[in-house]
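Re: weekly structure request thread

Next one in the queue (428 aa):
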Amino acid sequence: MKKKTIPFNFSDKHVNYIRRCKENMYNVAEGAVRAGKTVDNIFAFAMELMTVPDRIHLATGSTVANAKLNIGDANGFGLEYIFRGQCRWSKYKDNEALIIKGPHTRFKEKIVIFAGGAKADSYKKIRGNSYGMWIATEINLHHDNTIKEAFNRTAAAKVRKFFWDLNPSHPKHKIYVDYIDKYRDMGDELIGGYNYEHFTIDDNINLPKERILEIKSQYDPNTVWYHRDILGRRMVAEGLIYRNFANNPKKYVLEKISEPLIIQIGLDFGGSGSKHAFVASGISRDLKRLYALASKRTEPEDPETLYRDYLEFERFVSMKYGPIAACHVDSAEQVLRRGIQTKTVIPIKNSIKNEINDRIRVTDQLMNSGRFYMTKDCESLSEALSMAVWDPDKPTDFIRLDDGTSDIDTLDAFEYSWEKYIKALNIL
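Done, posted below.
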């Protein structure tokens, strides 16, 4: 049984949205980061779960892990806490599931299946079941195949309800055109009712004003991320990605580093006219600050020359900045990775390859919160960051321009060198 009270604290705006969830089939919470959108939907979903006759329900995120973290856990406000003592994590037909049974559900078993939805074939994991309600976090990161399949799988529900949340995307994203704005414009023609609310970070009364100001200060007000994450606006990408850095790269340069670092190298293999790129980064031991230590571009004629160039870079970094923990390389070139590994005792690992925009977002936050520094040995990286721009031909897709006019290879290598710690560095 529950032994601890969850400290829910909702502003009037959030309370009104949650109350409207009771009367509407389609419920959409959109807006800024840390606005409380997901918690609203979890709370409303859980209240319905206590009484709906349907046994099996669906919870999705971009990945299974994302769904479990943001809906199941939610920093102590998730389903496993609301049903504390009355639920357990298990498997249901080879799917991750939270099995709930206790006083809150009148001792009737409720199964919430957790699934990822970002890939084109993600829908296959949710086939075979009929679901009652569906709660989805970051719905704009779901593949359309998943959305359509989830709708189909709820067709026979006794109580059919949907709870979506999302941070703003570009105005012409399919999630708006095909669903969110389309349903809004249908008005009374949409059977079941439509409940939409837009939230900003200032609507979250659980965040002290000092913390809100702290979060806002970590963004450049001129960037797309500020308008999307802080103001909660739908935005189109255009122009320089790191405008503040490009305006004054020298302000990020340090003459001396005065703390011990976890040093890693990132290596992006060139091809089709692009160069190989090496970047070494140091992460502070408390995982809060990032130091770009050295960067180099090279265009060797054969693999052996590439290996020699890499070893020279590795020796330079280790002699000047300290021992290297690992090198993370482009996972598409396994032959070259194995070749380098035969030349060095440092582990040569595949890059994690987090989403490019996640890497861009964290880099921008580090720069604007005073947690990114670089040395004079990063000339190629400084130039690459200064010239990084959004693709002008795809303003609604938030794609980094990669047409040879900017140094994408060095940017990738830089991000490979620290993305292992992306969650720790992203303090929002």
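The mean pLDDT is 91. Residues 12-203 form a domain with the Rossmann fold fold (CATH 3.40.50.300).
Next request, please.
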